[in-house]
Amino acid sequence: MGQKLVFIHALFRTGSTYLWNTFRRNNKYCCYYEPFNENLINLVHDYFKSFNIDEKVSEKNRHPDLSNTYFYEYKKFIKKKDKGVPYFKKSFPYDEYCHTESNPDLLRYINFLIDGAEEKIPIFQFNRSSLRALWFKRNYPSSLNIYLYRNPRDQWQSYIDFFKRNNNPYFLTRDIMIAGKNRNKDSFSALQSLVPLFEYFNDDFSAEEIFYMILYKSYTDAEQYTVVYFLWLTALIENILNSDFVICIDDLNANIRDRGDFIGYLRMHEITGIDLNDINIRGYSSYSLDPGIMDWIEKTVREVIFSSLGSNKKREFHDKLDSSGNISQLLREKIINPASTPMNVVQGMTHLNPEERHFDMSMSIARNAVDIVNEKKQYINQIYNSYTYKLGDFILNPIKRAIKIYRKIKNR
């Protein structure tokens, strides 16, 4: 396929929705929002009727104002009586997070979306592809792969703030899910020396979601940040090695020169009509974790990750880090010249030692989570099969049908 393609890879809460929306404002692009979002498997045609942009969903998520629904570009693929985007598989978002080998099912899905863009240039904005840039470059050699990252502490604090505003630990849960489901893959095996990780697979994603929602509560804030930072650094290394352009949203936000460099790079690849002058990404002056603890975690994770990298990969990474003009000073300071951590902080962090997070205790946490998943499923089944539920359904169904007929007549 020789047509222009742009793949934007990013972790959660990195400003990727803002970047996606800047492309979407230009009608010559077909901009797919989160093509690996787990909700695409259940997307129904009524979603596009019931979703009201005036409900300020974007405000709740601290996203830019949107002219249409997040998933509007998928609407033409959803038949009225069916659900789910064609060729999307449950395994795409998390089970295959590290998969860079041959994947015919994924290739068929991406090609389907590319064809769906018709005469427009396809722009893909992913939040679950950060360890798969290599797969995209292998299968679409002429594509432009952009990696967008954010200061890891601000990214983490955005997770926390989202939880506090919405009482929803979605992003904290997802990082633990990613690490757990892929704990035996090369990218995450080293993380197990720092925090306990658990695999849980179920054909029903909602059961997996419940499991990890329960499990995340067992992690301390320090352990949660360890998972977040490990994924942050692992993804950054992979994209410095495999993506075409790596850019920090903080730099785009603060520096007009960086915005110009990025737009100039896009223009070189005939991607034009992008305006970033309205960018407004929040920065944080304080965090839920003590900065000294965060320093210690970052230093520990760096040591673990770089000690597990092969010498050739490590050399290639440092060569690219030194030679690349678009790697921010923040990153150079974080990786090449890390700050030392006070000894009192180090002594206070010994609870992260995996020996003190006893394996039996961790397995007990996992078993309890599985039990609760099964209990919830049994409880729901009991409700569905109960006489009261069936009687209520018997009474309500004629009323629902009457309302449906009334709406059809009214809308003629």
Features:
5 strands, five-stranded parallel beta sheet, alpha/beta, globular, 412 residues, single chain
Walk me through the structure:
- With 412 residues, the chain is an alpha/beta fold.
- The protein has one domain (6-357).
- Helix content is 51%, strand content 6%.
- The chain is built from 17 helices and five strands.
- It has helices spanning 16-24, 47-50, 57-60, 104-116, 133-139, 152-166, 170-181, 205-216, 221-242, 249-254, 256-268, 291-308, 311-323, 329-335, 343-347, 359-385, 387-410, and strands spanning 6-10, 29-33, 121-126, 144-149, 245-248.
- Strands 2-3-1-4-5 form a five-stranded parallel β-sheet, with helices on both faces.
- Helix 7 packs across helix 8 and helix 8 crosses helix 16.
- The longest helix is centred in the last third of the chain and has 27 residues, at 359-385.
- It is globular, with a radius of gyration of 23 Å.
- The mean pLDDT is 83.
Order of helices and strands: EHEHHHEHEHHHHEHHHHHHHH
Strand count, sense and barrel status of the largest sheet are:
5 strands, parallel
Distance between the termini: 44 Å
How would you describe the oligomerization state of the chains in this entry? single chain
Give, in spatial order, the strands making up the sheet with the most strands. Answer: 2-3-1-4-5
Q: Give me the number of helical elements.
A: 17
- Low-confidence regions: none
Percent in helix: 40-55%
Radius of gyration: 23 Å
Structural class designation? alpha/beta
Task: Give the domain tally.
Answer: 1
Globally, the shape reads globular
